[in-house]
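Annex B. Sample input.
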Amino acid sequence: MNQGKSPQIDRRRLLRGAGFTLGLPLLESMTRAGRSAFGDQRLPASDEGPAANRPTRMACLFVPNGVIQESWRPEGQGEGDQWQLSPTLMPLASLKSKVSVLSGLAHDNGRSYNDGAGDHARSGSTFLTASRPVKTSSKIRLGISMDQVAAEMLKSHTSLPSIELGLVASRNAGSCDSGYSCAYSSNISWRSENQPMPKETLPRAAFERLFGSGDTAARKRSRWMRQSILDVVRSDAEHLMKRVGQNDRRKLDEYFTSVREIERRIGRTEAADAEARPDLSIPAGRVKAFAEHCRLMMDLIVLAFQTDTTRVATLMLDNASGGRVYKEVGARGAHHGLSHHQNKQDKVDQLRKIDHYLVQQLAYFLGRLDAVSDGVDVDGNPASLLDQSMVLYGSGIGDGNRHTHHDLPIVLAGRSGGRLPSDRHLIYQQEKPMANLFLSMLDLMGTPTEAIGDSTGRLEKLT
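Annex B, continued. Sample output.
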């Protein structure tokens, strides 16, 4: 491309085809630095500043049944940067500089008080709401979740306000835990006090939700033909490639390769599902597919963040009181059953393997985010997508054997564009509401609110 000719690529530029739209990653020709290289000084006000057009993204990952605390708790010299990863958290070793562990947070509304049993339903429902669920199997009432507070405020900035994903289907009718509606166990994202956000559990459905334009007939035709979305938007993509510089063409080529690989993996997964359909009646699902299913969903979130299709995502690795059997790591019992271990060493050892395995999936997700370049942070330093994001990982139960709702296992990764310090173990000696963390995270998202759930203020020491 000749110097002096600006590509004039808008940050919200989409590739379009019959029934589909495909977002774009951040390109040089969308930024001040890139446009200046082409001699263009006519920049909108929104491009001012070193971190312009670098929004913070937020992903919240839920795991059920708590953890084995002794193996989870960080080791070494305690609070601050002089800490060491525990055996369970060791998969995060290569990303330790971008990870913090928070100890001492609690969900008081997860406790039984006068409501009796149902800790697992309360652990899922409080995880992002910090609100107390009404014990009922029909007329559910809870509260808006933290992710939906952000999604509502950001909805005008992206194609999708949020994306809700899971690995096990939701059940919103009937009772799943001691008189609590299944909706409480199946959902962590709530739009209102009686409306959970439906989550996608099929990779292709999630893909089409992210990149479909709403033309249902066209989407069905494309799926029936197994046509790549890249084929559908080919004409628009070729036109764009002619307009951008060499660096952007290389970045687009890498991005298109990633999209096509995800589509191929979805196709392989669907073929395997079709062959194993008789097994799908087993409540725990096809165990061998867990890691691939989980990582496909994580890769879709990476694509969604990379293209600014959405800035808010949730992923449930299992429903509350999940009973998946993790045979691939040598665990023989169902996860939920094992969590009631009664200090029996064999069960404890199996749970340690499960905890470690689930953190391995988190490490994969963080690694994928960290591999994507995303401009610069607030200080002008080169940043990855992980640097520009916040990833919350944890459970609404601390100790599964005792059904505790304090000292929750919480990891917070990413740097929120340079505004969130990392590589720390933050210890809260007196029980702190996890809702206080939510208020601080919403501040970092640029979507502040005065209160959520049982919050008492912002979480000190975090920023």
